[in-house]
Amino acid sequence: MTCPAWMTRWISSSRCAFASFVPMVMIRSASIGDAAQIADVMRESWRSAYDGIIASAILDRATAPDGGARIRQSFRTRPWQRMIAAVEDGIVGYAAFGPERDVLDMPWPYPVTPAGSEHEVAELYALYVHPARWSTGTGRALMDQVLVKVRAAGYATITLWVLEANARARRFYARAGFAPDGARHELDDLGGVTEIRYRRALGPGRLET
What we know:
- By secondary structure, this protein is an alpha+beta fold.
- The chain has one domain: Gcn5-related N-acetyltransferase (GNAT) (Aminopeptidase).
- 28% of the residues lie in helices and 27% in strands.
- Strand 5, helix 5 (138-152) and strand 6 (157-163) form a beta-alpha-beta unit.
- The longest helix has 15 residues, at 35-49.
- The two termini are 17 Å apart.
C-alpha cells in the first residue's frame, strides 16, 4: 500500500513508510479566511522555536497578535505565493512557497529572482507547525506536498532560508534532502540573527523518512 503524500493516518509503518501511528492530518490549499488560525500557528511556533535564539523583546514584538492581518495582506500583495494548511480539528500547520526571491541583493519586500520568474528555482518561504503537533509527521506531510506541487509546476530546484541557530529545523530540512549552499544573510530587524540558505534538486522521489 502506498499512502497519499497529503495525508498521514493511524496506520502501522509496515503498510506506509512515512506514517507510523500519527494522527490524521489533511493538507489542503489555504485561503484568506484561514489567516487568523495561520497567524496563531506562526505565533506559537515562533515562540517555541526561537526562544533563546531571538531576544525576548524582539520576539514579543514580532509575534504580537494581529488577528491574521499580516497573513491576509500577504494573500493580497503576493500573487505568486501559494499556501497550504494542515488541518485536524482546525489548522495545525502551514507552508508557503513560490518562485525564489532576491533576499541577498534587494530590500524588503523581496522581488522574485529571474530564476524564480522562469520557473527554474522555487523557494519554501515558510513551514510552521503548532508546537503541540511537533514530531507527529505534520511537518513531513506539508513538506511532501510542497515538493509535489513545485515539481508539478516545472521547477528544477527549491531553496529555503533557516536560522543558523535553529538546530531542530536544520535537522528536519536535512532529512528532507536539503543542504546548505553557502549563502548567509543577517536579519537586522530580528536582532542581527543569521539565516543560511538550504537547497535541494527536485528530481524524482519523495521526502526521506
